[in-house]
Amino acid sequence: MKSEVKISENRLQMTRVFDAPRQLVFDAWKQADKVQQWWGCKETIKVECRMDFRVGGSFTHKMSLTGAGEFSYTGTYDEIIEPERIAYHADMGGTITRVVVEFIAQGNQTKMVLTQEGFPTKNICEMVSRGTTEAFDKLDELLMRQAA
User: How many CA within 13 A on the CB side of residue 94?
Assistant: First the structure.
């Protein structure tokens, strides 16, 4: 399934159903070795993750992009309810957004809803939605490999 995307002026909401149990999908967000395999747009060739996965902990995802150099995405975890919800503030190079990721069990599948608010323009929101959609495609592939 592809991602369902809703965009407003400063808010992005993406919904995706993964053919994997909720705990497996949640683990892909909390374990650096897994995040490194799916984070970033399709031009991302390498991701280095440092994560302190706890409320108040921080993370840095340093991405190497084909033809564009390096880009860092940092944040601080505000709320973690395993395996239901992760909330954090993300610094995207001067723009701070609030991200909430919800994991909803649906039998052997997981509905994941990501809501990100605080974009300065609708254009940036649309750009982030494209990269996040591509990242979720990679996450889907990772989950299929793990389930096999």
Answer: 2
Question: In this structure, what DSSP letter does residue 10 have?
Answer: S
52 with 80: CB under 8 angstroms? no
Cα 114 to Cα 103: distance, rounded to the nearest angstrom: 9
CA 121 to each of CA 7, 64, 104, 132: distance values in angstroms, whole numbers, following the listed order: 11, 25, 29, 17
- Over the stretch 39-61, which tens digit does the pLDDT of each residue have? 998 999 999 999 999 999 999 99
- Whether this prediction's pTM lies above 0.85 is answered by yes
Tokens representing residue 73 in the block: 């995405």
pLDDT at 129 over 80: yes
Count structural domains, the chain: 1
Q: In this structure, which amino acid lies at residue 143?
A: L
Assign residue 33 a region (left: φ > 0; alpha: ψ between -120 and 50; beta: otherwise): alpha
CATH number at residue 75: 3.30.530.20
